[in-house]
């Protein structure tokens, strides 16, 4: 039985999942988090299903050594490819980022036309569409891979004419489909929310799966009696691990997280 005062394990292919960690910190400030970013093997978005499943299994094994009480796959591509594969072997709760965002999109659409932007892996997997179709059969889903947006965010070009131009080209295809709801189906895209919102116009509702996932996590922890009772001190609350370039990760994390990121440790994930 998991201990309610243990940390939550959160992982991603790199820095992107920090948008999910940030929402967990905002919505459940008392919870401890162990974050792993697979910075040596990012991106996952253009890798095969079997490779992403193998990486996911290794990371879960690492997080279990940290005595986590629940795991969040804070990566859309890893959720799309690996969640179903790995969840059957788990004896603690594990959630991905797709279900919560898909549910919110289905609830929010008025005309039944939903768009998704994400990595090639996420869009080609059809996972968002599959999950939404189970909730409502008559919706029409249009997916659009936007691979260049990830490196632009990682370069810090959040408000830049180059990012505007590229986002505008990707989104023009969706504009012709009369969608009224758009899922930001990649960890990095919430950081481009204002750009995407401006380009799509006020009639399109943007769904941020990072925010919705933190809400879902809270509900799952509550249902299983796993919400934290005695909080750790601020110093020990958040621990960060990566597979490469720890300092670069720390700098990025410091730029988007509310609190101080003291240190990031590098581990050899291939050992797990
Ligand atoms: N974290 C990935 C996702 O949400 C984006 C970056 C990558 O391709 O690894 O799909």
Structural features, described:
By secondary structure, the chain is α/β, with parallel strands linked by helices. It folds into two domains: 8-96 and 211-271, Rossmann fold (3-Layer(aba) Sandwich), CATH 3.40.50.1860; 98-209, 3-Layer(aba) Sandwich (Rossmann fold), CATH 3.40.50.1860. Helices cover 46% and strands 16% of the residues. It has helices at residues 18-27, 49-65, 76-87, 98-108, 120-125, 127-135, 149-154, 161-175, 193-200, 209-223, 234-237, 246-256; strands at residues 8-12, 33-37, 70-73, 94-95, 113-118, 140-145, 181-184, 205-207, 238-242, 264-266. It is globular and about 50 Å long. It binds D-glutamic acid. The site of D-glutamic acid has 17 residues, from helix 3.
List its salient traits.
Rossmann fold; 10 strands; single chain; 12 helices; globular; 46% helix; six-stranded parallel β-sheet; four-stranded parallel β-sheet; binds D-glutamic acid; alpha/beta; 272 residues
């Amino acid at each position: 039985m998991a201990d309610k005062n243990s940390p939550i394990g959160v992982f991603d292919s790199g820095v992107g999942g920090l948008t999910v960690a940030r929402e967990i910190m905002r919505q459940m400030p008392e919870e401890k988090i162990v974050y792993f970013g697979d910075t040596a093997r990012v991106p996952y978005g253009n890798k095969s299903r079997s490779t992403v499943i193998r990486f996911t299994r290794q990371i879960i094994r690492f997080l279990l050594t940290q005595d986590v009480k629940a795991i969040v796959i804070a990566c859309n591509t890893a959720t799309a490819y690996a969640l179903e594969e790995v969840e059957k072997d788990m004896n603690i709760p594990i959630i991905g980022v797709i279900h919560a965002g898909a549910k919110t999109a289905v609830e929010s659409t008025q005309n039944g036309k939903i768009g998704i932007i994400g990595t090639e892996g996420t869009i080609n997997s059809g996972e968002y569409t599959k999950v939404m179709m189970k909730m409502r059969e008559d919706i029409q889903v249009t997916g659009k891979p936007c691979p260049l947006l990830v490196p632009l965010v990682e370069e810090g070009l959040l408000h830049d004419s180059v990012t505007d131009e590229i986002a505008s080209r990707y989104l023009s295809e969706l504009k012709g489909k009369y969608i009224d709801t758009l899922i930001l189906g990649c960890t990095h895209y919430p950081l481009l929310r204002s750009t995407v919102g401006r380009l799509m116009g006020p009639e399109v509702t943007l769904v941020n799966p990072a925010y919705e996932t933190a809400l879902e996590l809270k509900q799952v922890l509550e249902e299983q009696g796993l919400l934290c009772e005695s909080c750790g001190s601020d110093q020990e609350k958040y621990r960060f691990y990566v597979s490469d370039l720890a300092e670069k990760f720390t700098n990025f994390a410091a730029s988007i997280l509310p609190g101080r990121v003291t240190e990031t440790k590098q581990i050899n994930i291939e050992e797990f």
